[in-house]
Specification:
There is one protein chain. The chain is mainly alpha-helical. It has 2 domains: 4-113, no CATH class; 119-191, no CATH class. Helices cover 60% and strands 0% of the residues. It has 11 helices and no strands. It is globular. The chain starts with a helix and ends in a 37-residue tail after the last helix.
């Protein structure tokens, strides 16, 4: 989710051909997966669709509701419009055949995952999540988070740094709603590339005090 530009490009020729034949699959050309942003977007799509297939196999409204609930922040980042439509669909699902609801939900989910999450949408999700923990934080901690969020908005800090900070508070304060959100770990963390030793944190962009670190 780090690079909107890289993620926003269309898939390669082979991937497009596969998608024409099998719409709704998570498909990407192997060479493009060398790009970290494209790879993370692909893995997010792949594992989200896999989780949905498991929910659909359960053949129960409760499983669909659970999937929707645990993916709200992820879907908010992908498409607020789709999230609203999916929410209405789930809310009224009891009055329609379940298989019909699942098929329509699947289509909306696939559409929501087609494009990369925009930076502005991710900022919105992080602000939304921050609302669940802000009441527990000191003024200095709140200011630090907002500074980090602004640096991400400007492209000076990766989304992963701000997401990790918010997630740490969700764990610390045991915020159940946030802890169940797949937004924080859309795919297994061990599939991520090793961190760049010259990360924004180590370069001194931010320190735990929220101020620039003096250069030696």
């Amino acid at each position: 989710m780090e690079s909107e530009v890289a993620c926003g490009r269309e898939a390669g020729l082979f991937a497009r051909a596969v998608l024409r034949r099998f719409p709704g699959l998570a498909v990407e050309d192997e060479g493009r997966l060398n790009d970290e942003a494209i790879r993370e977007r692909f893995l997010t799509q792949l594992f989200t669709l896999a989780r949905f297939r498991q929910a659909a196999k359960a053949d129960s409204l409760a499983a669909l509701v659970h999937f929707h609930t645990t993916h709200k922040l992820l879907l908010m980042a992908q498409s607020e419009k789709a999230l609203r439509e999916m929410g209405r669909l789930v809310a009224n699902a009891a009055h329609r055949p379940l298989l019909e609801v699942i098929a329509e939900y699947r289509q909306l989910l696939q559409q929501a995952l087609e494009r990369a999450a925009r930076r502005t949408a991710i900022v919105n999700v992080l602000q939304h999540g921050f609302g669940y923990v802000s009441k527990y934080l000191a003024a200095r901690e709140k200011a630090f988070f907002l500074q980090a969020l602004e640096k991400y908005r400007r492209g000076q800090l990766p989304a992963s740094a701000v997401i990790a900070l918010l997630r740490s508070w969700a764990v610390r304060f045991e915020v159940a709603y946030l802890l169940q959100q797949t937004f924080f770990e859309p795919f297994p963390d061990d599939l991520r590339e090793p961190l760049d030793p010259r990360s924004a944190w180590e370069r001194g962009v931010l320190t735990t005090s929220g101020r620039r670190k003096a250069r030696s």
